[in-house]
C-alpha cells in the first residue's frame, strides 16, 4: 500500500527517514484538511504582518498543521535606492532543515539564529524598480508549532561533518 501512495518508496532499499516523515505528515494533513471560509476585511496599515502570519489558519488548517505546521516568512528589501520591501510566506511546512556549519561544536540555538540571519543577494533584480543590485533577505518563523521538527543538514558536498551539536534536554 505504501508504494501505491508513495511511488518513490523502494522496498528493501535504504530510504531517508525525513522523506518518509514528510510523506506521512503531508498525507495525514491532506486527509484531515478542514476547508474554512473567512470574510474579507479591510487591511489596516499596521496589520499586514499579522495577516500574513495568521493566514495559514485559513489555507491549511488540519490537526496535523496545528501540531507540526511551521510558517516561514521571508522579508526582502531593495538596497538599490527604491527601498522597496516585500513580505512573503510559504505554505505550511512540517519539517525545517537547519544546516550545521563546519566547526568543532555549536549550539542548536546558534544554528537557528544563523538560519534566520540577514543575507545579501548580489546582482539581483528588484521586483519594484527593476534595477539590478543587492537585495537584503531575512527569514522569520511566523509560526512555530507545538512540535517543531528540525532536520539537521550535517553533510557537505561529499562528507558527513563531525560538528558536535548542543541542545537543551529539559524539553525532551
Q: Give the H and E element order.
A: HHHHHEEEEHEEEE
Computed Rg = 19 Å
Strand order of the largest sheet: 2-1-6-5
Enumerate the spans where pLDDT stays under 50 for 5 or more consecutive residues.
Answer: none
Distance between the termini: 33 Å
Total number of beta strands? 8
Number of helices: 6
The overall average pLDDT, rounded, is: 80
Strand % is: 25-35%
Structural class of the helix and strand makeup? alpha/beta
Overall, the morphology is globular
Percentage of residues in helical conformation: 25-40%
Give a short account of the largest sheet: 4 strands, antiparallel
Give an account of the 3D structure.
With 172 residues, the chain is an alpha/beta fold. Helices cover 26% and strands 27% of the residues. The protein is built from 6 helices and 8 strands; from the N terminus they run H-H-H-H-H-E-E-E-E-H-E-E-E-E. The strands form 3 sheets. The protein has a 4-stranded antiparallel sheet with strand order 2-1-6-5. Strand 1 (71-78) and strand 2 form a beta hairpin. The two termini are 33 Å apart. The model has no long low-confidence stretch (mean pLDDT 80).
Amino acid at each position: 500500500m505504501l508504494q501505491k501512495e508513495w511511488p518513490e518508496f523502494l522496498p528493501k532499499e535504504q530510504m531517508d527517514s525525513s522523506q518518509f516523515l514528510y510523506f506521512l505528515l503531508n498525507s495525514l494533513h491532506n486527509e484531515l484538511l478542514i476547508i474554512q471560509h473567512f470574510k474579507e476585511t479591510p487591511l489596516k496599515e499596521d496589520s499586514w504582518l499579522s495577516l500574513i502570519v495568521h493566514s495559514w489558519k485559513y489555507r491549511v488548517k488540519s490537526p496535523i498543521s496545528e501540531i507540526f505546521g511551521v510558517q516561514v516568512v521571508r522579508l526582502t528589501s531593495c538596497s538599490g535606492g527604491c527601498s522597496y520591501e516585500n513580505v512573503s510566506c510559504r505554505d505550511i511546512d512540517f519539517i525545517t532543515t537547519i544546516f550545521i556549519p563546519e566547526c568543532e561544536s555549536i549550539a542548536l540555538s546558534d544554528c537557528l539564529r544563523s538560519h534566520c540571519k540577514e543575507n545579501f543577494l548580489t546582482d539581483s533584480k528588484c521586483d519594484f524598480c527593476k534595477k539590478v543590485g543587492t537585495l537584503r533577505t531575512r527569514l522569520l518563523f511566523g509560526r512555530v508549532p507545538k512540535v517543531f521538527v528540525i532536520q539537521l543538514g550535517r553533510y557537505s558536498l561529499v562528507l558527513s561533518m563531525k560538528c558536535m551539536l548542543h541542545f537543551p534536554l529539559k524539553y525532551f
